[in-house]
Design goal:
The structure is a single chain. 0% of the residues lie in helices and 52% in strands. The chain has no helices and eleven strands. By secondary structure, the chain is mainly β.
């Protein structure tokens, strides 16, 4: 499985960005993680192949995850400075459910930077 993210950038608070992740191979659970400097990597949103999704509380109502054949998206609206982080696309090809711990994800993209200024 290969993952390739795109769509990061710099925006002002309240702005929007859409991240994309091109995926090849068997991807059962797919997720977006983020990691800010000095912080642990955290799951932002995940989606199973049946279309069910979950979000971390801080992004509910602002971010939307979606997926199609070979592609994963993260639409980010009403961005806040605290959303600033490196965002990673991840895939788990072993489980049909989505774990929250990054150790369960066996494939990772290279990351794309999102910077939100106030």
């Amino acid at each position: 499985v290969q993952l390739q993210e795109s769509g990061g950038g710099s925006v002002q608070s309240g702005g929007s960005l859409k991240l994309s992740c091109a995926a090849s191979g068997d991807t059962r659970c797919m997720a977006w993680f983020r990691q800010a400097p000095g912080k642990e990597r955290e799951v932002v949103a995940d989606m199973r192949m049946d279309g069910s999704s979950t979000y971390t509380d801080s992004v509910k109502g602002r971010f939307t995850i979606s997926r199609g054949p070979g592609i994963l998206y993260l639409q980010m609206n009403s961005l806040k400075p605290e959303d600033t982080a490196m965002y990673y696309c991840a895939a788990d090809s072993a489980r049909w459910w989505c774990a929250k711990d990054p150790v369960y994800f066996n494939y990772w993209g290279q990351g794309t930077q999102v910077t939100v200024s106030s």
